[in-house]
């Protein structure tokens, strides 16, 4: 049961990230490469000027990647805290004399609830990332 919830969350997050990659990041990558190529075509620029130009071209994509990474880490941290809470409840129930089978069932139910709760957060997380990416100056 908990594995199924985990699979649903993972699939939803992957789908959201793939959508962002197609809708926003791919275009940013293309713009970065075109911009970098223009930097290299400047035959009057010094090596340092070309390098700085390329770094400026890469900055929006690096910012986008940082936004996505930070949001995914935040989401993973929240999910981890939820699962740790479930594990603590199970440990407490075992120490209080609960049977292993009953505690296992409670743990599975708690973990499934964590997954379902976080599954509902994925659309808002995806929208927040999309909005943040849209605000990046190219």
Description of the structure:
Helix 1 runs parallel beside helix 3 (100-119) and helix 1 packs parallel to helix 4. By secondary structure, the chain is mainly alpha-helical. Helix content is 88%, strand content 0%. The longest helix has 49 residues, at 47-95. The protein has helices at 2-41, 47-95, 100-119, 122-134.
What is the helix/strand order?
A: HHHH
Low-confidence stretches: none
Helix share, percent: over 70%
**Computed Rg:** 22 Å
The class by helix and strand makeup works out as mainly alpha
Question: How far do the termini sit from each other?
Answer: 44 Å
Choose one word for the global shape: elongated
Tell me the number of helical segments per DSSP (H or I, 4 or more residues long).
4
Q: Report the portion of residues in β strands.
A: under 5%
């Amino acid at each position: 049961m908990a594995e199924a919830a985990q699979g649903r969350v993972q699939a939803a997050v992957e789908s959201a990230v793939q959508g962002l990659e197609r809708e926003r990041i791919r275009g940013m990558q293309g713009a970065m490469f075109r911009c970098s190529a223009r930097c290299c075509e400047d035959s009057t620029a010094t090596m340092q000027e070309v390098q700085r130009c390329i770094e400026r071209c890469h900055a929006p994509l690096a910012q986008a990647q940082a936004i996505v990474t930070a949001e995914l880490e935040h989401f993973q941290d929240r999910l981890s805290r939820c699962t740790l809470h479930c594990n603590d409840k199970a440990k407490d129930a075992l120490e209080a004399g609960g049977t292993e089978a009953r505690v296992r069932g409670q743990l599975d139910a708690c973990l499934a609830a964590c997954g379902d709760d976080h599954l509902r957060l994925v659309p808002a997380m995806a929208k927040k990332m999309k909005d943040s990416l849209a605000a990046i100056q190219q």
